[in-house]
UniProtKB/TrEMBL annotation, chain A:
Gene3D superfamilies: MetI-like. InterPro entries: MetI-like, MetI-like_sf. GO terms for biological process: transmembrane transport. It is a multi-pass membrane protein. This is Sorbitol ABC transporter membrane protein /mannitol ABC transporter membrane protein. It comes from Fulvimarina manganoxydans. Keywords: Cell membrane, Membrane, Transmembrane, Transmembrane helix, Transport.
TrEMBL record, chain B:
Residues 72-262 form the ABC transmembrane type-1 domain. It is found in: Cell membrane. Keywords: Cell membrane, Membrane, Transmembrane, Transmembrane helix, Transport. It comes from Fulvimarina manganoxydans. GO terms for biological process: transmembrane transport. SUPFAM superfamilies: MetI-like (SSF161098). Gene3D superfamilies: MetI-like (1.10.3720.10). Its main location: membrane. This is Sorbitol ABC transporter membrane protein /mannitol ABC transporter membrane protein. It holds the Pfam family BPD_transp_1.
TrEMBL record, chain C:
Residues 4-234 form the ABC transporter domain. It is a peripheral membrane protein. The keyword ATP-binding applies. It comes from the Bacteria. InterPro entries: AAA+_ATPase, ABC_transporter-like_ATP-bd, ABC_transporter-like_CS, ABC_transpr_MalK-like, ABC_transpr_MalK/UgpC-like, Mo/tungstate-bd_C_term_dom, NA-bd_OB-fold, P-loop_NTPase. It comes from Fulvimarina manganoxydans. This is Sorbitol ABC transporter ATP-binding protein /mannitol ABC transporter ATP-binding protein. The lineage of its organism: Bacteria, Pseudomonadati, Pseudomonadota, Alphaproteobacteria, Hyphomicrobiales. It is found in: Cell inner membrane. One of its GO terms (cellular component) is maltose transport complex. It holds the Pfam family ABC_tran.
């Protein structure tokens, strides 16, 4: 399948996509890198002196930054725990034989298709509002004190909203992996006298391990840059209690007009994401050979 | 005996599974119900579940008062436009990668994937400033290009995994039969890959429709899609649950239905073929 | 019309040289069969001729014009693939018409040619079906139909029958031979199958690791193999090749005797042996006989039934004029 003719045609066919992505990646990133060394404020765009690493030291030493970094990590880890744990359970459930499997499947995956702004507003107002929200009313009806989610536990609220959005993703992928496990294997283990729990532990879970890794890595990429959910619910507050790195950079740029510091923050976010990306790319690359 | 046990077990499982399914689905269901309540019923205590006066007045209000249609058209333009542009670029690229692979093909694929992992906030400022400079801020064209670029890696990957399943010999037969490169792609490859292309299109429409970083940051009103329209409800005046619900349903319904149809392909697309 | 000539053709994939320099002449109208063990480069050679792969060096001439640089479509060759490579989204009619459509032929002429081809290949009843709704044999016919409508200078077949069951293979084999008689177009045919090669070919090309070991008519290869490789490859069951003392007696490093050229007896003969396996087909009997001559058992064929079984003693006598002699390089001594 290869003559010089087809090979050069192939190169020409690939070129537009490659060039488009190259520009998309390289140009803005280079600009961000450049801005991050300038004292550049949107309110005074005329003077943009070179300041070296000042923006970085400013950004990194800002207490909000460390708070945002911790929040980002809590957000990512929290959502991962809920979605992976819940995803395994729900996937196991959906893999059972019951009436209406297909309908329940649709119900379970539905949240994934809800746009982030809708998800966040619906949860904020109709679920978590202390007075009118369903959760609050439920708590009062059983005699408990409803809590004001968005001000008392803002980060947890966002974790719940985001986990709700991503649970279907984890479930769907884990279910796909689960269903690709040949029943021969399970039956063989049954013949060998393994109980349901040991089958799960020694056969099913190892079989799903790759899918779990994929779920973790892909979700991490997306979770590192959660934005809309914060913007429409807590605005990062109260204080910086629910500010993550993405939101902090956005604030620096849009609210404070500090292009230099925001750029430095952007570069930090890129570095963080790259650490995860390296693992993911390796994993998928290995899969490509197989 | 064993049969009765399995039957009992099945019924138990049915109850459990439906309970879990409804619990997960509940916020959407609740939104759906609330959208048919009056604003007063919407915040009544205790909440009313099914037996209230169903009304479509919220939908009517949304339709009359807000520019709902304008936002929806923008969502449609953006998702269709970016997907069409994506196909235009990605079909040739995926053809090349699937049927004329070189040792570097794998690296290129992985590199494309890695661009998808670039956090948007890392390039927000330059893109924003470039958009300002080129007058693209709040323009559909600018946003279509951005959405096209962020989803291009996924389109290429999905098409690549689908094309890989088509035997190269058929394309070679076309070549022997005198098909030009364009004919080979449009008359042989594309018709054979229709299911794959269709699911790629579906997934990308979904992703573009729900994208909520660039659409929020690069638009104000003219090019703003439904994501931004809904975000404007975050600072409410007065009673608005029912209207928020109606607007939300209008924003998510089309994509929810599309999503339900494309759930199988979703896994493959979102994992870059790592899980099929 | 369809003379094909390869001169110093060489093909390497990166470092791996698959076909070292090779020359081959194919005359117009000839039925040429490429045989050789798996992985020897038969398909590669065919694809070089087709233009689906570039030659690394050397020239390919088709009908006197240098075709080395021509794209596949311009070489006026038609190819039938092992997997048939039919277009699954087109009806049989559209499949067959496709090359004509690509050539920009007018509709009436296309229809005429397609219905003509369908008639020749007995496809009339399936003409509006999709390939997915056809049996293997029918698909094969469509693939051939798609090839013949173009009236190519030559047909290239890459193991076209290997996906068919035994009975269909025999039928299609005859059909292709008949087609060749009728069209008198050059055909190049790659196969693993001895019988296909021997019965269909005007000329067989035996390939081994990209080399041509011998070119000749089927009977020539059978009766005068140029070396031990061809001797062992052509003929079924394989020729018995013996080294050592017995070969010395004939002034050779190796001697070869075909199973059908050894006379069998239960009482007397040149070589004494013990039957290890006996295969009784009714029409023939194949014996694998252990002897002192050679570590491996010799294969012997007897006409009709020869009633011996495991452990029986038999005597073997090779026909003196049918013993092939080879020197220490494996080349035939003539
Ligand atoms: N595109 C390629 N890149 C690298 N090596 C290749 C390529 N195509 C074929 N080869 C190698 O060339 C050799 C010859 O392959 P070819 O397909 O021609 O064999 P063949 O004689 O047709 O075998 P078979 O009878 O099994 O079909 C093999 O070792 C194969 O691995
Ligand atoms: Mg082959």
């Amino acid at each position: 399948m290869a003559t010089t003719h087809t090979k050069s045609a192939a190169r020409a066919m690939m070129a537009p996509s490659v060039i488009a992505l190259l520009i998309w990646m390289a140009v803005p990133l280079a600009m961000t890198l450049y801005y991050s060394t300038l004292g550049y404020s949107l309110y005074n765009p005329i003077s943009t002196p070179f300041v070296g690493f000042d923006n970085y030291s400013y950004f990194l030493s800002d207490p909000t930054f460390s708070a945002a970094l911790v929040n980002t990590l809590i957000l990512v880890v929290g959502v991962l725990c809920i979605t992976v744990g819940g995803g395994i359970l729900v996937a196991l459930l959906l893999d059972q034989d019951f009436y209406g499997v297909n309908v329940v499947r649709l119900l379970v995956i539905a949240p994934f298709f809800v746009m982030p702004t809708v998800a966040a507003l619906v949860w904020k107002n109709m679920m978590m509002n202390p007075v009118y929200g369903v959760i609050g009313q439920f708590l009062s009806s059983i005699g408990l004190q409803p809590i004001d989610w968005m001000t008392e536990v803002p980060l947890l609220s966002i974790i719940i909203i985001v986990a709700w959005q991503w649970l279907p993703f984890a479930t769907l992928i884990l279910l796909t992996a689960l269903q690709s496990l040949s029943s021969d294997q399970k039956e063989a283990a049954e013949m060998d006298g393994a109980g349901a729990l040991s089958i799960f532990w020694y056969i099913t879970l190892p079989h799903m391990s790759r899918a779990i890794t994929v779920v973790i890595l892909i979700q991490t990429i997306f979770l590192l840059s959660i934005f809309a959910e914060i913007l429409v619910t807590t605005n990062g507050g109260p204080g910086s209690q629910s500010t993550n790195l993405t939101y902090l950079v956005y604030q620096q740029a849009i609210s404070f007009g500090d292009v230099g510091a925001a750029s430095a923050g952007g570069i930090v976010a890129v570095i963080l994401a790259n650490i995860v990306a390296i693992f993911l790319v390796r994993l998928i690359g290995k899969n490509l050979d197989a | 005996m064993a049969r009765r046990v399995t039957q009992r077990r099945k019924i138990g499982m049915t109850v459990l599974a439906w309970a879990v399914g409804l619990l997960i689905f509940f916020p959407i269901l609740w939104t759906f119900l609330t959208s048919f309540k009056s604003e007063l019923t919407a915040i009544s205590i205790p909440p009313q579940f099914l037996f209230f006066d169903w009304t479509t007045e919220n939908y009517a209000t949304i339709y009359e008062q807000s520019n709902y249609f304008h936002y929806m058209m923008n969502s449609i333009y953006l998702s269709l436009g970016s997907t069409a542009l994506g196909l235009l670029f990605a079909i040739p690229a995926a053809w090349a990668m699937a049927f004329s692979p070189t040792p570097r093909t794998k690296d290129i694929l992985l590199w494309m994937l890695s661009t998808k992992m670039l956090p948007a906030v890392g390039v927000l400022i330059p893109i924003y400033l470039l958009f300002v400079n080129f007058g693209l801020l709040d323009s559909r064209l600018g946003l279509i290009v951005v959405l096209f670029l962020i989803n291009l890696p996924i389109i290429v990957w999905m098409l690549y995994t689908y094309f890989k399943e088509i035997p190269g010999e058929i394309l070679e037969a076309g070549r022997m039969d005198g098909a030009t490169l364009r004919q080979e792609i449009t008359q042989i490859l594309a018709p054979m890959a229709v299911p794959g292309i269709a699911s790629t299109v579906l997934l990308n429409i979904i992703l573009a429709w729900n994208e909520a970083f660039w659409t929020l940051n690069l638009t104000t009103s003219n090019a703003a899609p439904l994501t931004a329209f809904i975000a404007s409800f975050s600072s409410p005046q007065g009673n608005f649950y029912a209207k928020l619900s109606a607007a939300s349903m209008l924003a998510i319904a089309p994509i929810l239905i599309l999503g339900w149809f494309s759930q199988k392909q979703l896994v493959r697309g979102l994992t870059f073929g790592a899980v099929k | 019309m369809g003379a094909i000539r390869l001169e110093k053709v060489r093909k390497a994939f990166g470092e791996a040289v698959i076909i070292p320099e090779l020359d081959l002449d194919i005359k117009d109208g000839e039925f040429v069969v490429f045989v050789g063990p798996s992985g020897c480069g038969k398909s590669t050679l065919l694809r070089l001729i087709a233009g689906l792969e570039d030659v690394t060096s050397g020239d390919i001439t088709i009908d006197g014009t240098n075709a080395t640089e021509l794209p596949p479509a311009k070489r006026r060759l038609a190819m039938v693939f092992q997997s048939y490579a039919l277009y699954p989204h087109m009806s049989v009619r559209k499949n067959i018409a496709f090359p004509l459509k690509m050539a920009g032929m007018d509709k009436a002429e296309i229809d005429k040619r397609v219905s003509n081809a369908a008639k020749i290949l007995n496809l009339d009843n399936y003409i509006d079906r999709r390939p997915g709704q056809l049996s293997g044999g029918q698909r094969q016919r469509v693939a051939i139909g798609r090839a013949i409508v173009r009236e190519p200078a030559a047909f290239l077949f890459d193991e076209p029958l290997s996906n068919l069951d035994a009975a269909l293979r025999v039928g299609m084999r005859l059909e292709i031979s008949e087609l060749h008689q009728r069209l008198k177009t050059t055909m190049i045919y790659v196969t693993h199958d001895q019988v296909e090669a021997m019965t269909m070919a005007d000329k067989i090309v035996v390939l081994h690791a990209g080399h041509i070991e011998q070119v000749g008519s089927p009977l020539e290869l059978y009766s005068r193999p140029r070396n031990t490789f061809v001797a062992g490859f052509i003929g079924s069951p394989k020729m018995n090749l013996l080294t050592g003392a017995e070969a010395k007696k004939h002034d050779a490093a190796t001697i070869g005797v075909r199973p059908e050229h050894i006379a069998l007896s239960t009482s007397e003969g040149m070589w004494k042996g013990t039957v290890k396996v006996s295969e009784h087909l009714g029409s023939d009997t194949f014996l694998h006989v252990e002897t002192a001559l050679h570590p491996e058992p010799l294969t012997v064929r007897a006409d009709g039934e020869f009633p011996v079984h495991y452990g029986d003693t038999v005597y073997l006598t090779p026909q003196a004029d049918k013993i092939h002699r080879f020197d220490d390089k494996g080349l035939a001594i003539r």
